[in-house]
């Protein structure tokens, strides 16, 4: 956070056959694995392209969340299914060590293309919906702290009671 590249709007992918797109996807996969995240967006590794990936079976950073299938999504778009929002904890590989409470739409539908060009269309709720909104925000130059309403609920993992407890156990 602070790198101006993270605050730029990313460009849509026009040619899925472009070797650069394949390379970006590989680098994103490596970074997500190495850093142990549940999602990543291309601008986080320095490419202003509308590509996100997300999903996990079990994740140490979010131990209570239900699994989400691993998905690579190109040119993703989401639409809220209602005005209902909920508050939940978020972290970000670009904001290491920090977490905050962020309001997000509870239910959305989203779509995009997989790397082969097939359309993916899904409905999602709760944490799954939260991940999509977080990752798509990266493509528009928005990080989760920008969405926060109460900065008292923004802090370091080892100081926030909700996380300090867990990491000390
Ligand atoms: Ni992030």
Reconstruct the topology from this structure.
Layout: H1 19-35, E1 39-41, E2 51-56, E3 68-80, E4 85-90, E5 98-105, E6 107-113, E7 119-125, H2 126-139, H3 144-147, E8 154-156, H4 161-168
Antiparallel strand pairs: 1-2, 2-3, 3-6, 4-5, 5-8, 6-7
The structure holds nickel (II) ion.
Question: How would you characterize the overall build of this protein?
Answer:
The protein is an alpha+beta fold and 169 residues long. 25% of the residues lie in helices and 31% in strands. The strands form two sheets. It has a five-stranded antiparallel beta sheet, with helices on both faces. The protein has a three-stranded antiparallel beta sheet with strand order 4-5-8. A hairpin with a 7-residue loop joins strand 4 (85-90) and strand 5 (98-105). The protein binds nickel (II) ion. The site of nickel (II) ion (NI) has 5 residues, from helix 2.
